Amino acid sequence: MIERKFVAENLKQYQIEEYLRSVLGKAGLSYIKVQRTPLGEKILICSSRPGLIVGKSGSNITRLTKDLKEKFKMENPQIELLEEVNPMSDANIVAEGIANSLERFGTARFKGIGHKAITDIMSAGARGVEVLISGKVPSSRAKKWRFYMGYLKKSGDIAVSGVDKAYSSAKLKTGIVGVQVRIMPSSTSMPDEVIFIDSVKLEDTSTGKVETLTAEDAEKTDKKKPVKAEKKTKEKSADAEKKPKRKPAKKKDADVKTEEKPEKTEKTEDKSEKQEKAEEKKE
């Protein structure tokens, strides 16, 4: 069956990758690929420290080729090494480094290890990062510690295709500690991202003339629009100032009249007193 053949080849490739990762654990492996050529099978190993894989005068590579021939029955395996340009942007290298540092220093300094890892990743140019350390850290009770920084997508197609994920484990005295790393590199394009264009060419189909519209011209047209609105507001304020002020309400006149009434009562009292005196004299 053809299906069984494909399954057997993929299983063999997976076993080769697992074996190389177990042997070259501290070399900072990014990825391992197996390619089939007419001359034999070609194995591509990308790592941050290829010098550790080569060894002194290529002793490690000769040993690896012998092991691959014996264990996996490969006829002519050819190992090719590639160096990772930006190792802190690769999730596999970061997860492996965190696991190695936990095995070296223990669980007492796990917070410093996590914070240093995320700061190095963000300084390398990533958009966001998340590191999960789960296990008996630092006490005898299992916990999960989360270290994060920046912007990271958790759902949608970008969370699957645009986020680099990696898993690793550290063997300690208290037990196995798991390390998960998610990195969102700067190369991932977001669907809601807006790109500003400096200049645009506009062609008139009827006349065939071509005009170039720059960002400066667009800014000038935008600035002219609010000036008209300002002029209208100024004209309205000037018209409001020109209008005469309204007269005060009639209540004030009523108050004045009420104040004048007591004077009239005083005059009437004076007249009545004079009349009484005149009558008394006549008598």
Structure description:
With 283 residues, the chain is an alpha+beta fold. It folds into 3 domains: 2-85, GMP Synthetase, Chain A, domain 3 (2-Layer Sandwich), CATH 3.30.300.20; 89-184, Ribosomal protein S3 C-terminal domain (2-Layer Sandwich); 199-240. The protein is 48% helix and 23% strand. The protein is built from 8 helices and 9 strands. The protein has helices spanning 2-23, 50-54, 59-72, 91-105, 110-123, 157-161, 215-242, 251-282; strands at 29-36, 41-47, 78-83, 128-135, 143-150, 164-171, 176-184, 199-203, 210-214. The chain has a 4-stranded antiparallel β-sheet with strand order 5-4-7-6, covered by helices on one side. It has a 3-stranded mixed β-sheet with strand order 1-2-3. A hairpin with a 4-residue loop joins strand 6 (164-171) and strand 7. The longest helix is centred in the C-terminal third of the chain and has 32 residues, at 251-282. The radius of gyration is 44 Å and the shape is elongated. Mean pLDDT is 80; it is low at 252-261.
How would you summarize this macromolecular structure in one to three sentences?
It contains 8 helices and 9 strands. It has 283 residues and is an alpha+beta fold.
Radius of gyration: 44 Å
CATH topology group of the largest domain: Ribosomal protein S3 C-terminal domain
Number of domains: 3
The span between the termini is: 158 Å
Helix coverage percent: 40-55%
Structural class based on helices, strands and sheet pairing: alpha+beta
CATH homologous superfamily name of the largest domain?
Answer: Ribosomal protein S3, C-terminal domain
